[in-house]
Write a structure and sequence with these properties.
75% of the residues lie in helices and 0% in strands. It is built from 19 helices and no strands.
């Protein structure tokens, strides 16, 4: 625990608790990684089920995207509050509460009878995830000793961030095709219960003094929702639309108010001192950009495979296996071995550049592309790059953090990924929609109209337009990865571990 002055570092060996037995460390990692996999999986598990949900609940086109965004925004917007709650009330207890909320919300979501009940359940799911996820990462930082053991634990945790999203797509396709879309929510109940029972192996942590910054949480979350709404509506109704402009103004006011409040309250949700460390702020920015690119890849590649290549939900899920392989190789094997030898900047920068190459390959897809020659190379390469990025920036962001800031620092890291994903998906959706509609007005609507009327000429024209939109989104995604590479090179300069005291 920190002293009254709050100077103790996570990297300082002296205040750390005695090292647990190896078997207990393994069980603790299994529980924490399982929870992270479950929470992140729900970012994407709904994607493949969306057409079935739309048909069953008669969801309007404009509200369909909010089934995904409601979870991501609640998750990302409240994650800092969740991290602070873990610091104040005990990380194990808060972790358990978050998992319970998430599990119950999943059950209610599966029973939803209309779109609003489902969206509300997704919001509550996001709240539970926002409470549990940052405490999971801070539990790693306070449970595992510095060095190889923590590196391996961080590698597994970071792998869950990427693998969870991909497994969500595979599992979502399997459950939707063979059971029902409702099972993409019901499946969380037994898994959540098992993880909850497993939390008994986790050690209790102490509590810090302070208060929850509720006004900060409200203004930050409302500001991000307004920003995403403005970006989404701008792509649909135009950037000069009054409601679009009003959303951007509201976002600017709310986010400015949030930053102002952080300088005035005694216990801010986001201590701005955390951002003064260039390595940490650079890691957050890199994670935000990586989240934007990864969310866009999942979303648009799923649409491409189902709408253009006519894949079934199950086939679409299986098609993501190369991404899992690439990410698993880099996050669980290569990055942990490389971190003691080279600085995180080299690993993260290389990963972002590799991700840019993979996304560029996907931008070259057309309506006649084959899986092996078209999709597989880009997917495998991008997954490999993402794994390198996530592991290295995760370690860079939390290393050397004051112990009483551990939950906040880790919460901000995950929040960066979630908020980046929501913003990136909104922005690239606007790009894709505008590009497709330039070639064929209302291309998405025309595609479904052609299918309904069996006008296959219209379907073919719509597919060409939609493909241009999706590949344009991949082109912008390439630029996002390039931007992440530049951020890493400029901002992240932490040395390799044996040369840096904070990293042991």
């Amino acid at each position: 625990m920190s002293s009254a002055t709050g100077t103790d570092k996570i990297g300082d060996p002296s205040p750390a608790p005695p090292e647990p037995e190896q078997s207990k460390l393994g069980l603790a990692l299994l529980v924490i990684a399982g929870a992270q996999l479950l929470l992140v999986m729900d970012n994407t598990i709904m994607n493949i089920a969306l057409p079935s949900i739309q048909k069953d609940l008669e969801v309007t086109g404009s509200n369909l995207a909010w089934i995904v965004n409601a979870y991501a925004l609640a998750f990302g917007g409240l994650m800092l509050l969740g991290g602070k709650a873990g610091d104040l009330f005990g990380r194990k207890r808060v972790f358990q509460i978050g998992l319970l909320i998430f599990t119950l919300a999943s059950l209610f979501g599966g029973m939803a009878q209309n779109e609003w009940q489902l969206i509300a359940a997704r919001v509550v799911q996001g709240v539970g995830a926002a409470i549990a996820s940052p405490t999971a990462l801070s539990l790693i930082a306070t449970t595992f000793p510095e060095g190889k053991k923590r590196n391996n634990a961080m590698g597994v945790y970071a792998a869950m961030a990427g693998l969870g999203s991909t497994i969500g797509l595979i599992l979502g396709g399997t459950l939707t095709e063979h059971l029902s879309w409702r099972w993409v929510l019901y499946v969380n109940a037994p898994v959540g219960l098992i993880v909850l029972l497993g939390t008994r192996v986790l050690a209790d942590t102490g509590r810090e003094r302070g208060k929850l910054d509720v006004p900060g949480a409200i203004t930050a979350t409302a500001g991000m929702v307004s920003l995403v709404h403005g970006i989404t509506r701008g792509g649909e109704e135009g950037w000069t639309d009054p409601l679009t402009l009003a959303s951007f103004v509201a976002a600017a006011v709310l986010l400015s108010l949030f930053l102002f409040l952080q300088t005035k309250v005694a216990y801010p949700m986001l201590p701005l001192r955390l951002l003064k460390d260039r390595n940490r702020s650079g890691s957050y920015a890199t994670m935000l950009l990586g989240g934007a690119a990864m969310f866009a890849l999942f979303y648009f590649l799923t649409l491409y495979m189902q709408q253009i290549l006519d894949y079934t939900p199950f086939e679409t899920g299986l098609a993501y296996l190369p991404f899992i392989v690439g990410l698993g190789m880099s996050a669980s094997w290569l990055a942990p071995k490389a971190l003691p030898l080279v600085p995180p900047r080299v690993i993260a920068g290389s990963g972002a550049a590799i991700g840019a190459l993979g996304m560029f390959l996907l931008s070259m897809l057309d309506t006649d592309s084959e899986y092996v020659s078209g999709i597989l190379p880009g997917m495998l390469i991008t997954g490999f790059g993402v794994g390198l990025v996530f592991v290295s920036v995760t370690l860079s962001a939390v290393s050397g953090t004051d112990r009483n800031d551990a939950g906040i620092a880790s919460g901000l890291l995950d929040a960066s990924q979630q908020i980046g994903g929501a913003l990136g998906l909104a922005a690239l959706s606007s790009v894709a929609t505008a590009t497709a509609d330039d070639k064929l007005p209302h291309a998405s609507d025309e595609f479904f109209r052609g299918l309904a009327t069996k006008d296959f000429n219209l379907v073919a024209r719509a597919q060409e337009a939609l493909t241009e939109g999706y590949t344009q989104a991949f082109t912008v995604g390439t630029a996002v990865f390039v931007a992440a590479t530049l951020v890493v090179v400029i901002a992240v300069n932490r040395g390799k571990q044996e040369e840096n005291e904070e990293l042991g």
